[in-house]
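Reviewer 2 asked us to include a model.

Predict the structure of this chain.
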Amino acid sequence: MLITIVATIVAVVVTAALSFGKFARSDGWAATVTPLASIIGSGFLISGPLLAREFGGAASWAMAVLLLLAYAVGWVIRWNIVHVENYLADKPFNDPVVWSARITQLVLAGAYAVSVAYYLKLLAEFAMKPLAIPAGLHDLVANLGTTAIIGVLMLLAFGGGLRRVEHVAHGTVSIKIGIIAGLLAGLACWWGLNLGTTAPTPRAQVSWQSVPMLLGLLITVQGFETSRYLGHAYNQSMRVQTMRHAQWIAAVIYLAFIGLLTPLLGAAAKAEGVAGILDIMRMVAAPLGIFVLVGALASQLSAAVADSVGSGGLMNEVSRRKLSIPAAYALASALAIAVVWLTDPFQVVAVASRAFALFYAMQCGLAILVSWKTATGGWALRSAFAAIGLVCLVAAAAGAPAEG
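Predicted model (structure tokens):
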């Protein structure tokens, strides 16, 4: 009972502060919310059991490595916000760098379409977890439900209503972060009450075979790149600073969650399915399962809507408006539906990670090209870009599903 009370109070206080506080109305927070909302989806919920299963007691270290990779990629994109954008500002349409940038946008549009399948596939898994659906029908029902949601989003796009849904989805960010804060407070309270009585932490296990799976979880810490395409609303220094802040906040949340989950890693490793965290949180306190369910559904739907808008908009922009917005949404929706039916929940995480890893690798290539063209930095800087790009290429080629 105490755990539930503490979690509820923290959730309400944080939600109220982020919704009505003076800070919540500042431009700095508004610019932080977009990348932060994308980074913190249900990724932090699914990553706990998956990392526990693969790395045991080393789950926190594995998450730290994943976050460091994401921060390194974020550094490249922050560099691009300043230098690539300035370079492209006055270049003609046929400039090779302009074409390279356009190709990276096309890849990002495709990655967003794949991520819509990822978000909604997870939404279906969390929504179905409390339901008594026969195992033989589970995948069919999940795929049909996901396809139906994508179809509704596409119809909204044709009717011009998707933007209104997007505004509502963005408005749930404060609630989502409040729920996450409540979960962390609940776990911390449980830790204090059960100190010294918990099961031993599983043995740390790390092998080369674990690396592809870790890279396959890149999608769970992705989303910071959205700052790159907010130039219509915020200046470069604001976007660079707020993307950095979003990654810092997300890193604290991810590491705190995995760290507080340590006494439960043994149970987490045995959790079934990507929605297995529901079972873990019910062990802490039954009502916390509701926190997880509401937070997961809100996160996935808001992220799916945002990425649907992003994918359609980018496809329209890359085609130089030859592909209409509704047609672009339809194309993105068709790709998302194909991914839904051709992958299982574990595979779709890896597929989405690979798509974004390819985009990040191309951003590294773009940074090298502009650095060379403008004589900015030197070989040390370009070598760093190349090293990060190489890791991203490995992730794009070898990122593996979390379960065979």
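The chain has one domain: 2-398. The chain has a mean pLDDT of 82. We have added this to the supplementary material.
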